[in-house]
Please model this.
Amino acid sequence: MEDFTDLINYAKKIAAETDKVIFEVVSGEPRFLYDASLHLVKAGGKRLRPLATVLGGRLFGLKEEIGVRAGAAVEILHNFTLVHDDIMDKDDFRRGVPTVHKLWGENIAILAGDLLFAKAFEALLKLSDYNVGHKAIVKAIKELCWASVTVAEGQALDLSLSRLESVTLNNYVEMVYKKTAALFKASLCIGAILAGAPDEELSKLANYAVNVGIAFQIRDDELGLVADERKLGKPVYSDLREGKKTVLVIYALSRASKDERDFLLSVLGNEKATKDELKQAADIILSLGALDYSNKLASEYLKKGLEALDSINEVDSEAKVLLRKLALFVTKRQY
Amino acid sequence: MEDFTDLINYAKKIAAETDKVIFEVVSGEPRFLYDASLHLVKAGGKRLRPLATVLGGRLFGLKEEIGVRAGAAVEILHNFTLVHDDIMDKDDFRRGVPTVHKLWGENIAILAGDLLFAKAFEALLKLSDYNVGHKAIVKAIKELCWASVTVAEGQALDLSLSRLESVTLNNYVEMVYKKTAALFKASLCIGAILAGAPDEELSKLANYAVNVGIAFQIRDDELGLVADERKLGKPVYSDLREGKKTVLVIYALSRASKDERDFLLSVLGNEKATKDELKQAADIILSLGALDYSNKLASEYLKKGLEALDSINEVDSEAKVLLRKLALFVTKRQY
Model:
């Protein structure tokens, strides 16, 4: 087993610095709107995206301080998507606390998300106070903007796949690419862009990010089925209740007997499904070998991502080592 | 009465060009998400904000084509706020058609708004393909970003004022400044920024925009009480049903007898209020002279705005004439 101590310590240091920037940028009146906007930020989270931004920048010689400020932008954007996704998915808990719409109501949650969205761009714009050139800022904002568009498209796909019975692995990968991997890619590339990395190196880094991002989401879907509820910070099986077409579900449906398939389809996306029925559905999915399949698939993406990372001509080899560990960490994590 | 023919003809020309850019920028997959995002754009609207951008730019010599592209960004952002506001206000109609959440459901409406938000920034970023320098683009994006933050704060204030019994004129003006005037200010200033206008001129233009923006909203509130429903494109009295603290309501509450006040407060923000009760409340508000008061207030803001406009050192006097007419048009319009 890999030793993640150095990665975890570095992640903690970057997380603390990122939070300082987030609190600086996301401040204003009326107070209740800013409280709602900062609620999930205060509830925790590993700040893996800002870490990716810092490391993506360091690969090509970016000062950590600039990476942190840009990473804060990405984390703010990520929090915006969480606030809105929780409304759409009707999720009551996240990071172990009630979701924003549960505490402030849907209207304020919609607005809190909108505010965070704008503040993410503001965080990047503030880089002009830190000696970053306008050209690099425009390129970084383009990347964040592309990710915002792509994440919205991905969430729309996710909602529409939930309503379909027949979903292919390709549908899933496209959705996950847009919904999860795009922002991870932007996180890394914004750091590298600010460091002035050449386009050839950017596209290798993007390759690392997209593959690791997809592997990360596959692992996330697995944890939604097998994790300890308290460690997960939200109810297990909520993906099943919402009818999410994860790799596990797609594989299980393709292997299930007619009876199993009928039962799974009666539970998936059924808001009235009982905890027992959800558990039974999860057991069927696992008994069909979905976890093995999904693990194998995640490993393939991880491998491609690491190969892309290896091919990068970096100036900071420590950053490369940490990015390798980050990829292993997010795709093998237990909660 | 002023002759608005030249303004209206120019507005139509700019509207058609703006729409072309909007359809170019807001296109992609999945189709249903883009259809939902473009629904209100297709339903009409006068495109007064893009017109303001073009004219704000022309004052200082900006090419119309660049003004139109930037104006499209502002109009896209405006449409984002409409889609989300309609969800929050539970409005069923806008521009004479059912609102986005009525047709596609709340989830897709939230996402459609999010997508438009990102696309507004994308529209400004695309200016780099049209020979606009990075420094000007960054400054323009800062202005749009400031407006996005301020509009979210304004909408939050609006929601919170709806729940308060006692609201002062100052509370109202602050809310309207943030909710409406800020984006009108950004519309004009983005044009001027792209033209390279000096900060001194920008602040005069901002002064014009903020004052006219507030007068515009006061007129909008009046129309919500007295307009013809079909021309308005949405039900009259919806502001009353939602408990919106307009100038008219604030004034009426300050002048009402105890009985009138009790009745008004029983109807304002009461979702179950009947059409008759709403009509009766509107009649009380009008009988107390609220419309005269509100007209006078709007005229004061209009006057300040026109004085600010006069003080600008423009290079295109036709643009100044049209901006003067625009101010009169939006504050005196009958529907």
User: Anything to note?
Assistant: Chain A has one domain: 5-332. The first helix of chain A runs from residue 5 to 25.
